UniProtKB/TrEMBL annotation:
Disordered as annotated region, ranges: 391-464
Originating organism: Neoroseomonas eburnea
InterPro entries in UniProt: CB, DNA_brk_join_enz, Integrase-like_cat_sf, Integrase_catalytic, Integrase_DNA-bd_sf, Integrase_DNA_bind_dom, Integrase_recombinase_N, Integrase_SAM-like_N
Name of protein: Tyrosine-type recombinase/integrase
Gene3D superfamilies: 1.10.150.130, Integrase, DNA-binding domain, Intergrase catalytic core
GO MF entries: DNA binding
Alphabetical GO biological process terms: DNA integration; DNA recombination
Length: 464
């Protein structure tokens, strides 16, 4: 194995032989030129990694790289080896790294299917197939940058909800990529990418609307205007402060009348149990039961199946219209029930148990602030401020919280054709009257005292 200083002349003069041979560089340790029988000239670097293994990765072919360019790369690699890195192993890992498309497939099979609800799995698949794979599927997982994700989310500006769901899917997916060793820890490219603001679309069912709704439900049950299973489902959702799926999937075997409880083996947040109130017991005891059907609210056409969400949603919409109420989704029932729980004064932990929320933040998202309590609270604050200003203790808000009536107009008011009604000048002697107004700083006389701690105040005191 000859040793020479690798130069352009030496490389050009290297002739192919029957077998591969190498020419070692005398300037950079480990830097060499490999000449094959076919005449190819390949720059390589021989080194020993930190774990003791000998490596000889190819740097590149002569013609694609000059001698000096190849030597510079070899020196950079040697510096990495001195720092404990292994350029050859790093390149092998990079070549074996999966693409984002392959990561998506493993994410669904190894993470989403075992852990998520079927609806969540369907949503992940929609986000992956519609948005992630078309834009990022060809990239290697370690090569995806924050700007790549930012461009993807920015391109979904017109569909902010879908963009937020896609971002959440990507965040979890690249988190698992770190767990599976596809990316170094702490390199999730979705970090610091903000979500789009989403306006809440669920409005609160007011007290008047609640009375009108239940009045129509009573009338519908009496006169047979709606299917009894539909009105039962609505009443149960109010009684349990439940999600729609929890009512539609409810089975009779989950109801324990003896212990006054109902237990769902599975729900959005896992298995849960709720107590049966007197209202819920009355509803369940009086509910029609179809022999052979396990469901409390079975399908209207096939009792062996639960009522479909389509049937329930369209029935709810029709009932609102017939009751003369503004449209809102079925989730508004849960929002109203959570608001009633919060306003009833029960402890927060008890309220969360009734709604089956896991966090205080999520529970409070369902609680709406109504106008009457806010108005009463504003009166309490106002009364407290008045007590502080006046120096008197006011322990409770005044009984009459209405705004004071406007004072009656004076009996004799001078009117003028060029003065608008209600703005007539009360007295021509008042310096602030209409057509006689001057700024405060320009006025003088008995109706304008000198400001304290001024020269005018001192002169006024001397005159007194």
């Amino acid at each position: 194995m000859p040793k020479l200083k690798l130069t352009k002349t030496v490389v050009d003069g290297a002739r192919p032989e029957a077998k591969d041979y190498e020419i070692r560089d005398t300037v950079t340790p480990g830097f060499l030129l490999k000449v094959t029988p076919s005449g190819r000239r390949i720059f390589m670097l021989a080194y020993t990694a930190a774990n003791g293994q000998r490596r000889k990765p190819a740097i590149g072919r002569y013609g694609e790289l000059t001698v000096e360019q190849a030597r510079g790369i070899a020196q950079d690699w040697l510096a990495d080896v001195r720092r404990g890195s292994d350029p050859s192993a790093d390149r092998a890992v990079a070549r074996a790294a999966p693409t984002v498309k392959e990561l998506c497939q493993r994410f669904i099979s190894d993470y989403s299917l075992p852990r998520n609800k079927p609806s969540t799995v369907r949503g992940n698949r929609v986000n992956i197939n519609a948005h992630i794979i078309p834009r990022l599927g060809h990239l290697k997982v370690p090569d995806v940058t924050r700007s790549d994700v930012a461009r993807l989310i920015a391109g979904m500006e017109r569909t902010p909800t879908a963009a937020n769901h896609t971002l959440a899917c990507l965040r979890r997916m690249f988190g698992m990529a770190e767990v599976w060793g596809y990316r170094p820890d702490g390199t999730n490219p979705t970090r610091h990418i903000p979500k789009y603001p989403q306006k809440g679309r669920t409005r609160l069912i007011t007290d008047d609307e609640l009375r009108m709704l239940f009045a129509y439900l009573d009338r519908a049950d009496t006169e047979g205007l709606e299917h009894p299973f539909l009105t039962l489902a609505i009443r149960l959702q109010f009684a349990f402060a439940a999600r729609r799926s929890e009512i539609l999937d409810l089975q009779w075997e989950w109801v324990d009348f003896a212990n006054r409880r109902v237990a769902w083996p599975d729900s959005k947040t896992g298995g849960m149990s709720k107590p049966l109130s007197a209202e819920a017991i009355d509803l369940l005891r009086s509910a029609p039961r179809i022999e052979g059907s396990p469901y409390v609210v079975p399908s209207i056409f096939d009792p062996a199946k639960p009522m479909s969400g389509h049937t329930y949603t369209h029935g709810w919409t029709r009932i609102l219209e017939r009751a003369g109420l503004q449209h809102c989704g079925t989730h508004a029932i849960r929002h109203r029930a959570a608001t009633d729980i919060a306003n009833s004064g029960v402890p927060l932990k008890v309220g969360m148990a009734l709604t089956a929320h896991k966090t205080v933040t999520m529970f409070m998202r369902y609680v709406h602030a109504e106008d009457d309590p806010i108005r009463a609270a504003a009166e309490v604050v106002s009364a407290h401020r008045r007590s502080v200003v006046s120096g008197t203790a006011v322990l409770s808000p005044p009984e009459d919280t209405k705004a004071p009536a406007a004072p009656a107009p004076e009996a004799e008011v001078s009117a003028s054709a060029d003065v608008p009604h209600g703005l007539e000048e009360r007295s021509s002697n008042v310096r602030t009257g209409l057509r006689n107004y001057r700024p405060f700083r320009k006025r003088s006389g008995p109706n304008r005292s000198a400001p304290p701690n001024t020269k005018s105040a001192s002169e006024e005191a001397d005159h007194v």
